[in-house]
Design brief:
Layout lengths: L2 H14 E8 L6 E10 L2 H11 L2 E5 L8 E7 H11 L7 H8 L2 H4 L11 H15 L20
Antiparallel strand pairs: 1-2, 2-4, 3-4
Helix pairs in contact: 1-2, 4-6
């Protein structure tokens, strides 16, 4: 992959994307999955992201007066690989990326963190991701994440 492609992808995700953890509250023990999603009216950047990292592109139903949109989405291991590649260029979403990259169950390819008894790690990660994704919390961009590795700083 070219460095310019990675920098471009990081800019699209920083500006238009969402880097988060999604909670699937089913069965007795809810699952948690890493998720990277970008929604736009223009398909070209989304096709570029799909060619670089895989994933899927789906149409978002139109809600007038809004224009038709599409969303590119990757989850769990694909999301981890994507964020690992883009980490040096992420400016706005670097905290969320650090949290996802620091999850031990995701490193081992775990089934959404269900089977490893990592309830505390999951709870902290989910709480931090929600905090960083909340609008108007730019002060958090400059605070150190407990999941940040020494190589990412």
């Amino acid at each position: 992959m070219k460095q310019t492609d990675l920098a471009y992808a990081a800019g699209i995700i920083d500006g238009e994307g969402c880097v988060t953890l999604k909670l699937y509250p089913y069965r007795t023990y809810p699952a948690l999955a890493a998720l990277v999603r970008v929604a736009m009216c223009d398909l070209a950047p989304l096709r570029k992201l799909k060619s670089l990292f895989g994933g899927s592109i789906n149409m978002i139903p139109e809600k007038p007066p809004r224009r038709k949109q599409w969303a590119w989405t990757i989850q769990t291991l694909q999301a981890r690989k994507c964020l690992s590649s883009l980490r040096p260029w992420l400016i706005v979403k670097h905290k969320q990326a650090d949290i996802i990259l620091g999850l031990t169950w995701l490193k081992s390819g775990g089934a959404h963190g269900r089977s490893y008894g990592l309830a505390k790690e999951r709870e902290i990660a989910l709480r931090l991701i929600r905090k960083y994704n909340k609008r108007g919390t730019y002060a958090f961009l400059f605070s150190k994440s407990p999941f940040m590795s020494s190589s990412a700083s």
